[in-house]
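Project outcomes to date are best conveyed with an example. Our students and postdoctoral researchers have been running inverse folding experiments weekly, and each run begins with a structure described purely in tokens. The record below, which covers 279 residues, was selected by the lab manager from last quarter's runs and is presented without edits.
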């Protein structure tokens, strides 16, 4: 068990969005090593069938497990929604944690009026993963799911602050938090779940257009807390001394991964530190 604790945490996503989860993991557990795989050659996963997403997820998880990891984090909402069972079956003995369940639990703990808004990509909202996860904990909850696809493009381009992202945020969120006059007894959510790993980059713009009392749940941060607790429960946490490192793998264009990923991680990623692999 002691030797296994020295292994890295494995993280995969269809691209660079999962680096917000990696950032949260590094902040919560700076002594842990992390092995990150961005399957950029086959993104986005959200347009693929559940069967294809599950196959891609198993391939990514298998690559990380083959390299040696002690826990697998699925830092992709689409894969978390459809591939967790397949990943657990394919990687016995390796704990698998997705981003949906931690976010749902945090939202249920935060809400006082049982009204929760979830913003995500179109495929995540249409698939209903967050809705099911929240209802499994709080069946009485009223959930307002809203797709915000432009947030993904804004995050990828680095347009995360200023008038443009705030205007887009207002366009998406005003109907939820500032309903038109005349609406009969609207229930305004007191909790907002950022159900896409790109969205934490726009948290400041989102905060400016929702009511001050709104609790914003970042699924990246809540996932990191879940991983921390699970490693402790299993006795797999590394001693809190020294500083852990990160190894980056990508399936396409290491230069672009480093360039775009640096924005998501908040610190520079050198292209020489990104290993191009083939799945």
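After processing, the design step wrote out the following sequence:
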């Amino acid at each position: 068990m002691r030797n296994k604790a020295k292994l890295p945490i494995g993280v995969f996503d269809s691209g660079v969005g999962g680096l917000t989860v990696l950032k949260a993991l590094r902040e919560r557990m700076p002594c842990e090593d992390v092995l990150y795989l961005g399957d950029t050659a086959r993104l986005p996963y959200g347009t693929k069938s559940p069967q294809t997403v599950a196959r891609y997820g198993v391939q990514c998880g298998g690559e990380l497990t083959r390299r040696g990891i002690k826990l697998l984090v699925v830092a992709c909402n689409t894969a978390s929604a459809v591939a967790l069972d397949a990943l657990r079956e394919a990687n016995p003995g390796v704990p698998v944690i997705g981003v949906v369940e931690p976010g749902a639990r945090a939202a249920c703990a935060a809400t006082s009026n049982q009204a929760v808004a979830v913003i995500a990509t179109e495929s995540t909202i249409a698939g209903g993963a967050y809705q099911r996860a929240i209802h499994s904990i709080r069946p009485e909850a009223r959930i307002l799911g809203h797709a915000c696809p432009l947030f993904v493009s804004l995050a990828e381009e680095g347009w995360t602050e200023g008038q443009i992202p705030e205007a887009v945020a207002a366009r998406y969120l005003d109907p939820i938090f500032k309903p038109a006059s005349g609406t009969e007894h609207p229930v305004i959510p007191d909790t907002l779940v950022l159900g896409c790993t790109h969205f934490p980059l726009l948290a400041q713009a989102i905060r400016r257009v929702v009511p001050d009392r709104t609790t914003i749940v970042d699924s990246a941060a809540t996932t990191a807390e879940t991983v921390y607790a699970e490693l402790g429960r299993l006795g797999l946490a590394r001693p809190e001394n020294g500083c852990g490192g990160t190894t980056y793998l990508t399936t396409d264009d290491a230069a672009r991964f480093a360039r775009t990923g640096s924005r998501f991680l908040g610190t520079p990623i050198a292209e020489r530190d990104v290993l191009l692999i083939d799945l």
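Residues 81 and 127 are 8 Å apart (CA to CA). The beta strands are 9-13, 34-38, 71-74, 96-98, 115-120, 142-147, 191-194, 215-218, 246-250, 274-276. The training component of this project remains on track.
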